[in-house]
């Protein structure tokens, strides 16, 4: 694939679609949304606003890292706005345990928030990093990706007040990484592990609360740190909905949480094999999780490839 030609074509398409109007780019800090933001910047310059919504479901220090990374890229020309909407998301997710329902609640809250931004900014278009795997999994009924709208019968213009532009929706993850390199994004971005659109809500089985998200956020950080030298496609932790009996420091009964660790190898996220992590690495992950998170009494390693499993749990 000629990525230089791809960039030229997409820049022309974005310019043609937006014209002299204003567009908003939904930036999360991952490779997909970052690549789309740079494409939009090349096409529109100051006609583009980049929006990062802090939904309380991101990795540790994500908002600060996004601002720092894009400032170093010279993207201060783009008005990057960080909005703290965590309370809104947690309020609407309260009491919901069904996986698909959680995704739908996240999607609706996310786009209503963007809709408000679009209306107040006078923008007419939203640029987002939908990729081919998102479309395929939604169409096949595997799970509803939060960034798929028209494919499931939602008209974004009617429902949220803007037209969606998806410049990379025909690309798979490995192709997006190559595109990001051509666009000049740093390795920190283009080699970054995939992170789900609904964030850590997909790594909490059962009800999503601030307390449960904080447990899995810290566990995910530990897993990423301990597997970083192996550079897996994706490695993370999941907080399960069941509990297990453990022992406290004094030998007393401690009925606590269970963390599942998952690490996979893939190129396009459509299939995945398990990372064969060394035993000492798995032991180190387990020790750090139970030591740094006293709420957790059991750590397990998920050995299931995709298929039959999906990469994320919900």
Q: What structural category do the secondary elements indicate?
A: alpha/beta
Strand order of the largest sheet: 3-2-1-4-5
Number of strands: 9
Element-level helix/strand string: HEHEHEHHEHHEHHHEEEHE
Global Rg: 20 Å
Distance between the termini: 33 Å
As residue ranges, the low-confidence spans are none
Proportion of residues in β-strands:
15-25%
* Total of helices: 11
Mean pLDDT: 88
Globally, the shape reads globular
Please summarize the sheet with the most strands.
Answer: 5 strands, parallel
Helical content class: 40-55%
Overview of this structure, please?
With 314 residues, the protein is of the alpha/beta class. The protein is built from eleven helices and nine strands. Strand 1, helix 2 and strand 2 form a beta-alpha-beta unit. Helix 1 packs across helix 8 and helix 4 runs antiparallel to helix 5. The longest helix has 23 residues. The protein starts with a helix and ends in a 13-residue tail after the last strand. The mean pLDDT is 88.
Name some characteristics of this structure.
globular, 11 helices, 314 residues
Layout of SSEs?
Blueprint: H1 3-18, E1 23-26, H2 31-44, E2 48-54, H3 62-72, E3 79-84, H4 86-93, H5 99-121, E4 125-127, H6 132-139, H7 156-160, E5 163-165, H8 173-183, H9 187-190, H10 210-227, E6 234-247, E7 253-265, E8 273-274, H11 279-292, E9 296-301
Parallel strand pairs: 1-2, 1-4, 2-3, 4-5, 7-9
Antiparallel strand pairs: 6-7, 7-8
Helix pairs in contact: 1-2, 1-8, 2-8, 4-5, 10-11
